[in-house]
Amino acid sequence: MAKPAQGAKYRGSIHDFPGFDPNQDAEALYTAMKGFGSDKEAILDIITSRSNRQRQEVCQSYKSLYGKDLIADLKYELTGKFERLIVGLMRPPAYCDAKEIKDAISGIGTDEKCLIEILASRTNEQMHQLVAAYKDAYERDLEADIIGDTSGHFQKMLVVLLQGTREEDDVVSEDLVQQDVQDLYEAGELKWGTDEAQFIYILGNRSKQHLRLVFDEYLKTTGKPIEASIRGELSGDFEKLMLAVVKCIRSTPEYFAERLFKAMKGLGTRDNTLIRIMVSRSELDMLDIREIFRTKYEKSLYSMIKNDTSGEYKKTLLKLCGGDDDAAGQFFPEAAQVAYQMWELSAVARVELKGTVRPANDFNPDADAKALRKAMKGLGTDEDTIIDIITHRSNAQRQQIRQTFKSHFGRDLMTDLKSEISGDLARLILGLMMPPAHYDAKQLKKAMEGAGTDEKTLIEILATRTNAEIRAINEAYKEDYHKSLEDALSSDTSGHFRRILISLATGNREEGGENLDQAREDAQVAAEILEIADTPSGDKTSLETRFMTVLCTRSYPHLRRVFQEFIKMTNYDVEHTIKKEMSGDVRDAFVAIVQSVKNKPLFFADKLYKSMKGAGTDEKTLTRIMVSRSEIDLLNIRREFIEKYDKSLHQAIEGDTSGDFLKALLALCGGED
């Protein structure tokens, strides 16, 4: 069994079996495979409850007792995915990796994803063991075989990783960090073309601790994460490999959690990936992977395997998983620490928010007004011209066009557009023509009028807008509907939910930095109201008010510190705890605030994904977000979307909408990532 580093806790899900007797196990396995059929339950029970070291002893005892090769007998008796899984568990880890790589480069074509996964994630020691195992098993040189089956910069980086010579010194030179940041920046963003050799050298050789600091400083210096530069400067398998290396540097368990999720999401299961990861990580970091999986995807790894596989194959995978994190409604304590680290990096420096719609160069409102009038005059409507003009002008420029249109033609542009276009396209185009505050005010009004209330829209807008935006919305609402937004919310909502919305609608969130002492007090309030504090104090009504005050009025930098202190204090993630302990609209509002504080572009990326997944499309949500974020952070949302869902926002829109609505959305999206 793999030993954790000195002082580190063992994080595998498979342990040495107490009272282990290799001869007894060998006899039980022989009995399970003797005669007609085989006792698969007995086989999987023994093999999944022994460590790899113990399995090797069982193999040796089996050969001594029966003169037969246990792996060969298992291959003969078992079939399909179950056989691949059991046989994978029986091999020593390095030999298992060697077999995976041999299969990846054998025959026609290469399984680049397998090569990337293994070589980007293994430690120096594991890499040396892999090279030796490959030589022993196949009497071939692994480096030579990889060179023979790959090419270009992808090949060069694989060879660098294969050397297993990454620096392991935890002492980091600040000067070298700054130099590497400058070298990476000059090799990519500042260079015509890209100096791939610098990326290969730095990412392939520097220590993990060093590179994490490089990534932090790169974000501060350039305003963008290193991943964004890699996507912009590199391409193909080389780009995928470098992104995998960065992910593993940041968090190897998170990389594998993501790989497992993608292996099981959607139609069909990528069983080879699922088997390879469950086998290779079962004695290393499966508990960490489970924790991150539960945090990131809001479901347990156990439950996803259970729903996506069947038979003995499923039973074996679940044994390797080691437990269901949903079963008792309990959250892994360590997951909260990981959860914080997952988004804390984005708060290290201020990431520049970028929209996809910018002011048009050489803007001529007179020409645009005439072109729009011509597009709507006579029989039929030239939707392409309308879309092209309106989606490629900033909102301020659109207001100039409206004024010019009225001056030239004595007509209201909005009224003309309403009469000429309809449906989803009309909602999108008319939304773009409204000033942002008036558009938000209208969305809030529509959410509250008629039978029933659209609480999700109220939450989305009020939980994510800045103080300045909220104040502008209040003015617009009063101007357009002759009623205060607060009065409207009071009339249409009730209880704690109403209090939360009215608090947010005041636009009085603090705008300063963090206060550590206050953050600790605020974290204690959160722990008490969420009923996980060791010593709850105060009456519940007072605590609820204080908790609402914390989430609705503290500054974003301060709240990030509160969330971190909450983790230190309780070992829980505040977002997950709110989801577990609260319910209804209050829970949804608080979760939206927390998600917005953690990573606002990711909050909107999730909303966009949910608006397009499954049967049917939520065009209203899709339109609202594309309109409202197009000049603020839609470019950042695009990056979060492709990072989380492994496809671009452009692709998602293209696959889920059609016609002129599709054209307008893609124009706002601003490009294919």
UniProtKB/TrEMBL annotation:
Q: Where are the transmembrane segments?
A: none
InterPro entries, alphabetically? Annexin, Annexin_repeat, Annexin_repeat_CS, Annexin_sf, ANX6
What protein does this entry describe?
Annexin
Gene behind this protein: ANXA6
Query: Where, per UniProt, does this protein localize?
Result: Cytoplasm; Melanosome; Secreted
Q: Which UniProt keywords apply?
A: Acetylation, Annexin, Calcium, Calcium/phospholipid-binding, Cytoplasm, Isopeptide bond, Phosphoprotein, Repeat, Secreted, Ubl conjugation
Offer an example of a GO molecular function term for this protein.
Answer: cholesterol binding
Family designation: Belongs to the annexin family.
Upper classification of the source organism reads:
Eukaryota, Metazoa, Chordata, Craniata, Vertebrata
SMART domains linked to this entry: ANX
